[in-house]
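Notes, Module 5: Reading structure tokens.

Key idea: the token line is not a picture. It is a compressed description, and you learn to read it the same way you learned to read a sequence, by spotting repeated patterns. We will look at two proteins. The first is printed below with its tokens.
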Amino acid sequence: MDITNNEQILMKLREIPPSKACHLAKSFYYYPVRLRMINSCIIMRCIIVQESIISYLVPEDRRDQILIPEEIKAIIEDEDRIPPDIVQKICRIGETSMGGVEFKLIMNDNKEVLCNIPLGPGFADFLSLPQRYLMEDIKDVKAAARQFIQPGTSLSPRYKDLNWCAIDDALMEKVLNIDK
């Protein structure tokens, strides 16, 4: 379904489980998604968040790159997204190294994948897994003792590699079923 108005954005986002920000001074929900824009471009690793906090999240030199809802043709659940329940477990681990969280993903074959995310952005939704694994292969997560990042460590995208889309606060509240 192509998106042509706010009600369609609301309906599509309600189909996608939100994530809750971790490791940030502010607590809020957001949607890690892919977007197809009206020019047919696919935007990967996009964070949809409400307008009132976008300036808190996006550095001033990147604010002109914030996507606007009027440019969206479709919202797509991102296949590179870690399952939301695993993201919350990662958030509960907390800081394990200077400015970051090191953890191990336990895969369905019981092998462990060492991972690292920076605390700054507080978004643990996207990781690059070894090629043999898919996100649905993640069974659990556990804290990793302080380890140096080694070759083969799965890293989250750098903060500057995330894309951003701001939606109206009232629409976000409707999506999340927040009554004021």
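Here is the second protein, with the sequence above and the tokens below, as before.
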Amino acid sequence: MSLLTESIPIETASDGTDLSTFRAGGILLHAIRLELGTLSTPDFTITEQPNGDSILAVAAVAADKTWYPSVLDDDAAGADIAGSARPYPVYDRIQIATAGGGANKTGRLILLYER
């Protein structure tokens, strides 16, 4: 197992939004770290594309933070098993939509993943 990082800059437009994409191509996503920089309480919606599955959705983030997106194992009947979380599998690409970050502000997300 080899853990890697990818730094994704967030550079908002005059309306406080940004849309970024990371071409993951088959990874296990362990963590998402936000370095707020000059961003002003942004909202983030992070999805797997092209299917649009939600990885993380947070609002009004006011400080640097780390999230650990995960999925639960399933039993033989397909039901989730509580307490059996695994890193989030991403098959194609990750899209990061930022809103409310303030006009022309910057920050970054750092993805920690396993290939």
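Summary for the second protein:
- The chain has a mean pLDDT of 95.
- Residues 3-114 form a domain with the Jelly Rolls fold (CATH 2.60.120.380).
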